[in-house]
Amino acid sequence: MSIRKRLPPEESRMAALEAARALLVEAGPQAVTLKAVAGRIGRTHANLLHHFGSASGLQKALAKHLAETICATIREAVIASRSGIGKPRDVVDLTFDAFDREGAGALASWMLLSGNEDALDPIVETIHDLVVDLEEYSSDAQRSTTLALTLMALGDALMGGPLAKGLELPRTAARDRAEQMLIEGIATQQATQAD
């Protein structure tokens, strides 16, 4: 008989979110169930219900967790890019990867299709907080660029491969266009600040 170590509530919750994230990347959003996550971390379904309330609660918590960890990385890349250490492409790749390889695009779509109407709230709130945190860069133009970049990354994650192929464009076409958009936005902002 194995004895499970009792974890503090926050550690138990974090272990569940990390297991959910792994399931999302490995098998897609439909695999992120209370039962699958509980099995992965050696906990009970009831334990996860206690922490998340429902499968949609788990998915919403996962979306928030993904958004927070990804936006923290994007924040660092934006600061590096603005200071000349990084490149706009770093910001583009991190954003696109978040929605594609990290599964945020598939998760958001799955939650919306499953009737979880407030599915995007954690993602939207975290992106908003990121823009506010970088307030010296958050002009109307910068917020508009953030919107376009996020929507491009989401769309690319959902259908970028087939669409690029159908249009006979390289798979990186959307990323390339997003990078150009960021470069143009930075140039415009620098010109405005110089005036």
Automatic annotation (TrEMBL):
UniProt keyword annotation of Metal-binding present: no
DNA-binding region residue numbers: 33-52
InterPro entries with a match to the protein in the record: Homeodomain-like_sf, HTH_TetR
Chain ranges of the HTH tetR-type domain: 10-70
Highest taxon of source: Bacteria
Keywords assigned by UniProt, alphabetized: DNA-binding
SUPFAM superfamilies: Homeodomain-like (SSF46689)
Gene3D superfamilies according to UniProt: Tetracycline Repressor, domain 2
Protein name, per record: TetR family transcriptional regulator
Origin species: Novosphingobium jiangmenense
